[in-house]
Amino acid sequence: MSEEINAKKEEARRRILGLVADYCETYHNQRAPFQEGQRIPYASRVYDSREMVNLVDSALEFWLTSGRYTEQFEEQLSAYLGVRFCSLVNSGSSANLAAFMALTSPLLGGRRIRRGDEVITVAAGFPTTVTPMIQYGAVPVFVDVTIPQYNIDVERLEEARSEKTKAVMLAHTLGNPFNLEAVKEFCSRWNLWLVEDNCDALGSRYTINGETKFTGTIGDIGTSSFYPPHHMTMGEGGAVYTDNPLLHKIIRSFRDWGRDCSCPSGCDNLCGHRFDRQYGELPLGYDHKYVYSHFGYNLKATDMQAAIGCAQLEKLPSFAARRKENFARLKAGLAGTEESYILPGVCEKSDPSWFGFLITCRRGVDRNRVVQYAEQKGVQTRMLFAGNLLKHPCFDEMRRTGEGYRVVGSLEQTDRIMRDSFWVGVYPGMTDEMTDYMAKILKEACQI
Length: 448
What we know:
Blueprint: H1 3-27, H2 49-61, H3 68-81, E1 85-89, H4 92-102, E2 118-122, H5 131-136, E3 139-143, H6 157-160, E4 165-171, H7 180-190, E5 193-197, E6 205-208, E7 211-214, E8 221-225, E9 238-242, H8 245-255, H9 303-333, E10 341-342, E11 350-351, E12 356-361, H10 367-376, H11 396-401, E13 406-407, H12 412-420, E14 421-425, H13 432-445
Parallel strand pairs: 2-3, 2-4, 3-13, 4-5, 5-8
Antiparallel strand pairs: 1-9, 6-7, 6-11, 8-9, 10-12, 12-14
Helix pairs in contact: 1-2, 2-9, 3-9, 4-8, 9-13, 10-13
């Protein structure tokens, strides 16, 4: 391309992006003051012209699949979290899938998870923490949780372990870290993998062995989701991160069709041995770009998603700070309701970046009545996802046969959450007026 044409191209690009910024500021970022009774969603996107400009900038390149923005995002998220490796994927569910499948790789030798091996987890949460285990043929072992932290009851870990146990895979519930000190010590003592489902907790911190770290970076693998309600968004999207080079290699393989080659999209022969090695029973010199070391998937995100993510990452610290402020304000506003509600409690040694404000109704307070009143007044509510995953239709066949999973003791608190708990949002776009109105409505709801 001649210098003249290139100059015209860049000028056109500059003009287009300038117009996009003006459009966003004029038509997307103007918001009227909150009026009581208006709908308050449990979550919403928070963005400005930076995200939209990045999105269009990527579209103008029309690379579409993973490219320069993907590489930038992976580097920046790794730097933010303080981990060595990050892989962008197309959803948080895919992140959990890639994280779990990595632990089934033959490259891990005797520590690989095989069919019939057990993984300790909880039933009070989102199904895609558990789904990869069941689909692979591993056995989830369900342990009860505690209230008001809503995370695994670590006193039951030893009881849950068997000779078949290979891993622990848990989510940090609504941003509140689980007891990482106890879980990490348990995993280290028994040589178990630890996967942190960090999809609801990006930006949460935990102090372990005198060092404060981000959740998702203390176990062997961490995962994140960038679906719109989460701490940051790129529409759809997720990430898998680790400090372990071998796990990173395996994660990339499962993400990229299961291939052995690690060349990024559009690149060839970075290893310098594309046509001179022998793999499996393939002919000597078979093209390394089409050698598969795992039965993988295509879980990549697009560069347009990554472009949005790069802009969101710049805002992530302020997002986390605002979530904490909204949580604290709402909890203060609900003072005096303790006879009706169990308010959320913070895990010791943690600094949560809250995803939501979780409430359990005490005896005599009807959750359905409370949430219906709140919804009628414009306050959107949510259950703690599955409540008790074992009660859902997807478990019908397994419940009938009693095979494919194991339960440790009773799931008494899990069942209580299913019956009596709900949550409301604290997302960073929520104003003080919105938070105060939610507190007012929730106070009224427990008195009717």
